[in-house]
Amino acid sequence: MRGGGVWSVAVLLAGVLVALALGRTDIPLSDIWHLLTSLLQGAPAPNEQVQTVVLQIRGPRIVAAIAVGGALAVAGAVFQGLFRNPLVSPDILGASAGAALGAVLGIFLSFGVFGIQAAAFVGGLLAVALVYGVGSTVRHGDPVLVLLLAGIVIGALLGAGIGLVKVLADPYNQLPAMTFWLLGSLAAAHADDLLPLIGPVALGTVVLLLLRWRMDVMSLPEEEARSLGARTTGLRLLIVAAATLVTAASVAAAGIVGWVGLVVPHLARFLVGPSFARLLPTSAALGGGFLLLIDSLARTLAPVEIPLGILTALIGSPFFIVLLRRASRGWT
Fold first, then answer.
1. What is the reported pTM?
2. Helices marked H in the chain — which ranges?
3. Is the pLDDT of residue 332 over 90?
4. Structural domains for the chain
5. What is the DSSP letter of 110?
């Protein structure tokens, strides 16, 4: 179990090194080492070009990738445990669809970059609030199943709204921007954009870490959790709110980056087991490292940058097929 945590940290460190070294201009690891040691010692940078690339261009993008990948992986692990379903991802309650609708509306209304990100963030939060409001009107049945079904229905409605905005958009300027945003990218990550991302991600992650022991109880069936003294309704609302916060912030910063919240929690669970005390930190480290490696591929595989959503789908789809085959064995 402890070895799994070491592996997750190793993946994260490998992702950081690859992201620092590779790009349009490759930088030797020795130059990166000299730069970092000079900065720690307060000495002048040995190479100003390397300093500019590392600190002003790749550095903020690396921090954003770690925050987005870690947040999506943590949210995925939480939702899979809360809904007791291994095929659940962070967008199950409509956070991604709501953020996407907010973003395309921002582009349609010609907002700036900050306005688009703010609209996406607010859209994600409002979508989950709507799902929870619809679910709370149903007094009978399993509340977890009710939330799941409400999320599917609201997500479909939000998807229709996205399609309508795309039909009405300018096909030469607005529509390409919407399409690129919906596919996911960290190309616009700058130092000024980190605070609106890291703030909500840190807040939501800290709340989830503080609730890690209670989430082990919440992953049990409803009646069993109540018999152990858990106040399931309030806890579920708090957990969903924290997981939604980190998901909405991530989608607002990077667009729709699928599969991270589905694939990475399973890998983390394989390494350290189902206990949330170990699962959440491991998922965060693996998610950050995974998205760093994917982002490095996106920047270097082709003359133009490949959207993150395409690469994560290419890697995540085979994993999902394997997972589906394993799950189908229990259906027969």
1. 0.90
2. 2-21, 29-41, 48-51, 59-82, 95-108, 113-136, 143-168, 174-183, 194-210, 212-218, 222-227, 232-254, 260-272, 276-300, 308-328
3. no
4. 2-328 (1.10.3470.10)
5. T
